[in-house]
């Protein structure tokens, strides 16, 4: 179980165009503005062959001294490259949330809680693939419990241009409900990854 006295370490990763940094900024906004907690965020963009982008957040009830996320409690992976690069760094009993059509899940430590969300299909059903990050953010809020539902919804509502706000909130509600359903169903059972 995660030590609640320690800052929560979160890594969000995928392709740059999937809105990884906006996901992290919106989550940090919900935590800091709406819940009056502390968050520290950094991000890395690898424009090489992988095209992987990652954002890291530390979340705590007390002011934070900057440090890098190295063993996240939570991983959100929106691409296969992001999953391959960061999945085995997740702490024991950590939580991994993946986009189910873009990420193939292979061996994970037995105690890792893994959830899959069809965010791309859901975004396409709403008429705009760019909503993938909002759906993943909402699902993450539901399965992680790291932030209150309304705090995160309010942050989504104030993080997008007015013309896009209503659709973003619709995507948020759909993603949160799907995440809540996944949480009630329980994590996936993944074949165990033997340490090398």
Topology, element by element:
Layout: E1 8-15, H1 20-34, E2 38-45, E3 52-60, E4 74-77, H2 80-86, E5 95-99, E6 113-117, H3 119-125, H4 132-144, H5 149-157, H6 162-185
Parallel strand pairs: 1-4, 4-5, 5-6
Antiparallel strand pairs: 1-3, 2-3
Helix pairs in contact: 1-4, 1-5, 3-4, 4-5, 4-6, 5-6
The number of helical elements comes to: 6
What do we call the CATH homologous superfamily? Answer: Pyruvate-ferredoxin oxidoreductase, PFOR, domain III
Low-pLDDT segments = none
Largest sheet: 6 strands, mixed
Strand content: 15-25%
What is the total tally of β strands? 6
Gap between N and C termini: 24 Å
Gross CATH architecture: 3-Layer(aba) Sandwich
Major sheet: order of its strands?
2-3-1-4-5-6
Strand/helix succession: EHEEEHEEHHHH
Explain what this protein looks like in three dimensions.
It contains six helices and six strands; from the N terminus they run E-H-E-E-E-H-E-E-H-H-H-H. It is of the alpha/beta class and 196 residues long. The protein has one domain: Pyruvate-ferredoxin oxidoreductase, PFOR, domain III (Pyruvate-ferredoxin Oxidoreductase, domain 3, 3-Layer(aba) Sandwich), CATH 3.40.920. A six-stranded mixed sheet has the order 2-3-1-4-5-6, with helices on both faces. The longest helix is centred in the last third of the chain and has 24 residues.
């Amino acid at each position: 179980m995660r030590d609640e006295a320690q800052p929560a370490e979160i890594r969000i990763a995928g392709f740059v165009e999937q809105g990884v940094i906006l996901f992290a900024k919106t989550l940090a906004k919900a935590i800091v503005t709406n819940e009056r907690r502390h968050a520290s965020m950094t991000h890395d963009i690898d424009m090489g062959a992988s095209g992987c982008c990652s954002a890291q957040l530390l979340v705590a009830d007390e002011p934070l001294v900057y440090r890098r996320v190295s063993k996240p409690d939570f991983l959100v992976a929106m691409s296969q490259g992001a999953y391959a690069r960061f999945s085995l760094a997740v702490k024991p009993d950590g939580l991994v949330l993946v986009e189910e059509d873009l990420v193939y899940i292979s061996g994970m430590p037995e105690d890792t809680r893994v959830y899959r969300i069809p965010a791309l299909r859901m975004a396409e059903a709403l008429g705009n693939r760019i909503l993938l990050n909002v759906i993943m953010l909402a699902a993450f809020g539901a399965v992680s419990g790291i932030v209150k539902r309304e705090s995160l919804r309010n942050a989504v509502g104030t993080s997008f241009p007015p013309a896009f706000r209503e659709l973003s909130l619709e995507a948020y509600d759909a993603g949160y409900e799907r995440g809540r359903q996944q949480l009630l169903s329980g994590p996936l059972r993944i074949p165990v990854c033997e340490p090398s």
